[in-house]
Write a structure and sequence with these properties.
The structure is a single chain. With 268 residues, the chain is an alpha+beta fold. The chain has a domain of 183 residues: Heat Shock Protein 90 (2-Layer Sandwich), CATH 3.30.565. 36% of the residues lie in helices and 21% in strands. The protein is built from 8 helices and 9 strands. Strands 3-4-5-9-6-7-8 form a 7-stranded antiparallel beta sheet, with helices on both faces. A two-stranded parallel ribbon has the order 1-2. Helix 5 runs antiparallel to helix 8. The N and C termini lie far apart (42 Å). This is ATP-binding protein. Keywords: ATP-binding, Nucleotide-binding. GO terms for molecular function: ATP binding.
Protein backbone atom coordinates (compact mmCIF):
# COMPACT_ATOMS: atom_id res chain seq x y z
CA UNK A 1 0.00 0.00 0.00
CA UNK A 2 1.47 3.41 -0.95
CA UNK A 3 2.34 5.71 1.94
CA UNK A 4 -0.24 8.41 2.58
CA UNK A 5 1.06 11.84 1.62
CA UNK A 6 0.17 14.79 3.84
CA UNK A 7 0.40 18.49 2.96
CA UNK A 8 3.65 20.10 4.08
CA UNK A 9 1.98 22.15 6.79
CA UNK A 10 0.34 19.09 8.32
CA UNK A 11 3.66 17.23 8.25
CA UNK A 12 5.21 20.20 10.05
CA UNK A 13 2.53 20.03 12.73
CA UNK A 14 3.11 16.29 13.15
CA UNK A 15 6.82 17.04 13.59
CA UNK A 16 5.90 19.21 16.57
CA UNK A 17 3.74 16.42 18.01
CA UNK A 18 6.56 13.89 17.74
CA UNK A 19 9.00 16.27 19.45
CA UNK A 20 6.45 17.02 22.17
CA UNK A 21 5.67 13.37 22.81
CA UNK A 22 9.34 12.41 22.94
CA UNK A 23 10.08 15.26 25.36
CA UNK A 24 7.24 14.28 27.68
CA UNK A 25 8.41 10.67 27.73
CA UNK A 26 12.14 11.38 28.16
CA UNK A 27 11.88 14.67 30.13
CA UNK A 28 14.26 16.11 27.56
CA UNK A 29 13.61 18.14 24.40
CA UNK A 30 16.65 17.31 22.31
CA UNK A 31 16.96 19.51 19.22
CA UNK A 32 20.67 18.91 18.62
CA UNK A 33 20.13 17.45 15.15
CA UNK A 34 17.45 19.93 14.10
CA UNK A 35 18.27 22.03 11.05
CA UNK A 36 15.12 24.07 10.40
CA UNK A 37 11.55 24.65 11.56
CA UNK A 38 8.63 26.30 9.85
CA UNK A 39 6.21 28.32 12.04
CA UNK A 40 3.70 25.46 12.04
CA UNK A 41 6.26 23.42 13.99
CA UNK A 42 7.99 26.22 15.84
CA UNK A 43 5.01 28.13 17.24
CA UNK A 44 3.42 25.26 19.21
CA UNK A 45 6.92 24.03 20.09
CA UNK A 46 7.83 27.44 21.49
CA UNK A 47 4.62 27.47 23.52
CA UNK A 48 5.44 23.97 24.77
CA UNK A 49 8.96 25.04 25.80
CA UNK A 50 7.57 28.00 27.74
CA UNK A 51 4.98 25.83 29.48
CA UNK A 52 7.38 23.01 30.40
CA UNK A 53 10.52 25.04 31.03
CA UNK A 54 10.83 23.87 34.64
CA UNK A 55 9.95 20.24 33.93
CA UNK A 56 11.84 19.34 30.76
CA UNK A 57 15.51 19.80 29.92
CA UNK A 58 16.01 21.78 26.71
CA UNK A 59 18.98 20.87 24.48
CA UNK A 60 19.35 23.47 21.69
CA UNK A 61 20.38 22.70 18.10
CA UNK A 62 24.07 21.99 17.57
CA UNK A 63 24.03 24.27 14.53
CA UNK A 64 24.65 27.70 16.06
CA UNK A 65 22.76 29.54 13.33
CA UNK A 66 19.67 27.46 13.99
CA UNK A 67 20.08 27.84 17.76
CA UNK A 68 20.37 31.62 17.38
CA UNK A 69 17.27 31.74 15.18
CA UNK A 70 15.27 29.78 17.75
CA UNK A 71 16.41 32.17 20.46
CA UNK A 72 15.38 35.16 18.38
CA UNK A 73 11.93 33.96 17.36
CA UNK A 74 11.02 32.89 20.89
CA UNK A 75 11.82 36.41 22.14
CA UNK A 76 9.70 39.57 22.05
CA UNK A 77 8.90 41.74 19.05
CA UNK A 78 11.25 44.73 19.13
CA UNK A 79 11.61 47.77 16.91
CA UNK A 80 15.04 46.66 15.75
CA UNK A 81 13.42 43.61 14.16
CA UNK A 82 11.97 45.82 11.42
CA UNK A 83 13.37 44.84 8.05
CA UNK A 84 13.88 41.23 9.05
CA UNK A 85 11.89 38.41 7.50
CA UNK A 86 10.21 37.11 10.64
CA UNK A 87 7.88 38.12 13.43
CA UNK A 88 8.95 36.26 16.58
CA UNK A 89 6.51 34.38 18.77
CA UNK A 90 4.12 36.93 20.26
CA UNK A 91 1.75 36.40 23.16
CA UNK A 92 -1.69 37.85 22.55
CA UNK A 93 -3.05 39.86 25.51
CA UNK A 94 -5.55 37.96 27.69
CA UNK A 95 -9.27 38.30 27.05
CA UNK A 96 -9.56 40.86 29.85
CA UNK A 97 -7.10 43.07 27.94
CA UNK A 98 -8.43 42.37 24.44
CA UNK A 99 -8.47 46.08 23.61
CA UNK A 100 -4.67 46.07 23.78
CA UNK A 101 -4.50 43.63 20.87
CA UNK A 102 -5.09 46.55 18.50
CA UNK A 103 -1.72 48.02 19.43
CA UNK A 104 -0.07 44.67 18.80
CA UNK A 105 -1.77 44.31 15.42
CA UNK A 106 -0.55 47.79 14.54
CA UNK A 107 3.03 46.64 15.15
CA UNK A 108 2.51 43.64 12.91
CA UNK A 109 0.96 45.71 10.11
CA UNK A 110 3.84 48.18 10.29
CA UNK A 111 6.37 45.35 10.33
CA UNK A 112 5.01 44.04 7.02
CA UNK A 113 4.48 47.46 5.40
CA UNK A 114 0.69 47.17 5.83
CA UNK A 115 0.62 44.10 3.63
CA UNK A 116 1.39 45.90 0.38
CA UNK A 117 3.18 42.83 -0.97
CA UNK A 118 0.72 40.38 0.60
CA UNK A 119 -2.50 41.09 -1.24
CA UNK A 120 -2.72 44.77 -0.33
CA UNK A 121 -3.52 46.64 2.86
CA UNK A 122 -7.24 45.79 3.00
CA UNK A 123 -6.72 42.07 2.46
CA UNK A 124 -3.77 41.74 4.82
CA UNK A 125 -5.36 43.67 7.68
CA UNK A 126 -8.68 41.88 7.23
CA UNK A 127 -7.12 38.43 7.29
CA UNK A 128 -4.95 38.98 10.36
CA UNK A 129 -7.55 40.95 12.32
CA UNK A 130 -10.31 38.41 11.69
CA UNK A 131 -8.21 35.46 12.79
CA UNK A 132 -7.14 37.24 15.98
CA UNK A 133 -10.72 38.32 16.69
CA UNK A 134 -11.85 34.74 16.17
CA UNK A 135 -9.50 33.59 18.92
CA UNK A 136 -10.92 36.13 21.36
CA UNK A 137 -14.54 35.39 20.48
CA UNK A 138 -14.50 31.61 20.65
CA UNK A 139 -11.48 29.92 22.19
CA UNK A 140 -11.55 30.86 25.92
CA UNK A 141 -7.76 30.59 25.90
CA UNK A 142 -5.25 30.94 28.69
CA UNK A 143 -2.44 31.49 26.21
CA UNK A 144 -2.53 32.50 22.56
CA UNK A 145 0.37 33.13 20.22
CA UNK A 146 1.24 34.07 16.67
CA UNK A 147 4.37 34.21 14.56
CA UNK A 148 5.30 34.65 10.91
CA UNK A 149 8.23 34.04 8.59
CA UNK A 150 8.78 35.21 5.02
CA UNK A 151 10.70 32.91 2.66
CA UNK A 152 11.75 35.08 -0.24
CA UNK A 153 13.50 32.34 -2.22
CA UNK A 154 10.59 29.95 -1.72
CA UNK A 155 8.10 32.64 -2.63
CA UNK A 156 5.72 32.58 0.33
CA UNK A 157 5.09 33.79 3.85
CA UNK A 158 3.79 31.48 6.57
CA UNK A 159 1.71 32.90 9.43
CA UNK A 160 0.69 30.69 12.31
CA UNK A 161 -1.80 31.21 15.15
CA UNK A 162 -2.10 28.92 18.17
CA UNK A 163 -4.26 29.03 21.27
CA UNK A 164 -4.69 26.57 24.15
CA UNK A 165 -8.44 27.11 24.40
CA UNK A 166 -11.48 24.85 24.24
CA UNK A 167 -11.13 23.84 20.54
CA UNK A 168 -13.69 24.47 17.82
CA UNK A 169 -15.75 21.41 18.73
CA UNK A 170 -15.55 22.47 22.38
CA UNK A 171 -17.02 25.86 21.51
CA UNK A 172 -19.89 24.19 19.68
CA UNK A 173 -20.53 21.67 22.46
CA UNK A 174 -20.93 24.48 25.00
CA UNK A 175 -23.95 25.53 22.96
CA UNK A 176 -25.44 22.05 22.63
CA UNK A 177 -23.98 21.27 19.20
CA UNK A 178 -21.90 18.12 19.29
CA UNK A 179 -19.47 17.32 16.46
CA UNK A 180 -16.32 15.32 15.97
CA UNK A 181 -13.31 17.63 15.81
CA UNK A 182 -12.82 17.41 12.04
CA UNK A 183 -16.54 17.90 11.37
CA UNK A 184 -16.58 20.91 13.70
CA UNK A 185 -13.88 22.57 11.60
CA UNK A 186 -16.02 22.16 8.48
CA UNK A 187 -19.10 23.47 10.26
CA UNK A 188 -17.16 26.55 11.35
CA UNK A 189 -15.91 27.09 7.81
CA UNK A 190 -19.46 26.74 6.49
CA UNK A 191 -20.69 29.43 8.86
CA UNK A 192 -22.44 27.57 11.68
CA UNK A 193 -22.63 30.03 14.57
CA UNK A 194 -22.69 29.81 18.35
CA UNK A 195 -23.47 33.52 18.66
CA UNK A 196 -26.50 34.05 16.42
CA UNK A 197 -26.80 35.09 12.80
CA UNK A 198 -23.70 36.77 11.32
CA UNK A 199 -21.70 36.02 14.47
CA UNK A 200 -20.09 32.74 13.47
CA UNK A 201 -16.42 31.87 13.41
CA UNK A 202 -15.82 34.01 10.32
CA UNK A 203 -13.46 31.39 8.94
CA UNK A 204 -15.39 30.88 5.70
CA UNK A 205 -14.84 34.38 4.34
CA UNK A 206 -11.28 34.34 5.59
CA UNK A 207 -10.66 31.06 3.83
CA UNK A 208 -12.01 32.40 0.53
CA UNK A 209 -9.69 35.39 0.62
CA UNK A 210 -6.70 33.20 1.54
CA UNK A 211 -7.25 30.37 -0.93
CA UNK A 212 -9.09 32.01 -3.83
CA UNK A 213 -7.98 35.62 -3.65
CA UNK A 214 -4.27 35.42 -2.91
CA UNK A 215 -4.27 32.35 -3.56
CA UNK A 216 -2.74 30.62 -0.56
CA UNK A 217 -3.17 27.58 1.66
CA UNK A 218 -4.71 27.09 5.09
CA UNK A 219 -4.31 24.33 7.66
CA UNK A 220 -6.59 24.15 10.70
CA UNK A 221 -5.88 21.72 13.55
CA UNK A 222 -8.21 21.55 16.53
CA UNK A 223 -8.33 18.71 19.05
CA UNK A 224 -8.01 15.53 17.01
CA UNK A 225 -9.28 17.09 13.80
CA UNK A 226 -7.39 18.69 10.94
CA UNK A 227 -8.42 20.22 7.64
CA UNK A 228 -6.33 21.50 4.74
CA UNK A 229 -7.61 23.96 2.16
CA UNK A 230 -6.07 25.01 -1.15
CA UNK A 231 -7.56 26.69 -4.20
CA UNK A 232 -8.86 24.33 -6.90
CA UNK A 233 -8.31 21.28 -4.71
CA UNK A 234 -10.85 19.33 -2.64
CA UNK A 235 -10.81 19.94 1.10
CA UNK A 236 -8.72 17.36 2.93
CA UNK A 237 -10.09 16.25 6.32
CA UNK A 238 -8.09 14.22 8.84
CA UNK A 239 -8.95 12.41 12.06
CA UNK A 240 -5.72 12.41 14.06
CA UNK A 241 -4.47 9.68 16.36
CA UNK A 242 -4.52 10.39 20.09
CA UNK A 243 -0.77 11.05 20.10
CA UNK A 244 -1.30 13.92 17.65
CA UNK A 245 -4.12 15.56 19.60
CA UNK A 246 -3.77 19.30 20.09
CA UNK A 247 -5.10 20.90 23.25
CA UNK A 248 -6.41 23.96 21.48
CA UNK A 249 -6.51 25.21 17.91
CA UNK A 250 -3.78 25.99 15.39
CA UNK A 251 -4.29 27.85 12.12
CA UNK A 252 -1.43 28.03 9.64
CA UNK A 253 -1.63 30.00 6.39
CA UNK A 254 0.80 30.32 3.52
CA UNK A 255 0.54 33.45 1.40
CA UNK A 256 2.39 33.78 -1.93
CA UNK A 257 5.09 36.46 -1.85
CA UNK A 258 4.90 38.88 -3.46
CA UNK A 259 1.24 38.87 -4.51
CA UNK A 260 -0.89 41.49 -6.24
CA UNK A 261 -3.61 43.45 -4.46
CA UNK A 262 -6.81 41.54 -3.77
CA UNK A 263 -10.32 43.01 -3.65
CA UNK A 264 -11.64 41.33 -0.51
CA UNK A 265 -15.22 42.33 -1.31
CA UNK A 266 -15.28 39.72 -4.06
CA UNK A 267 -15.02 37.06 -1.35
CA UNK A 268 -16.79 38.33 1.79
Amino acid sequence: MPELEFPNQLNNFLTFCNLRNSAIESKSLDLQLSSWFYPTTLLPLGAFIKEKREQIKYIPPANQNVANYLSLVTGDLKAENEGKTYIPIINLPPKSLESESGKLLGQIFKFYNNGKEYGGENAFKYLISELVDNIYQHSEFKNAFLMAQRYEKKGFMEICFFDDGITISGSFSKHGMVFEDSDAILEAINGLSTKGKERGFGLGSNLKVFTQGLPGEMLIVSGKGAAFFKANEPTKLYILQDKYKLEGTLISVRIPYPVKEVDIYEFI
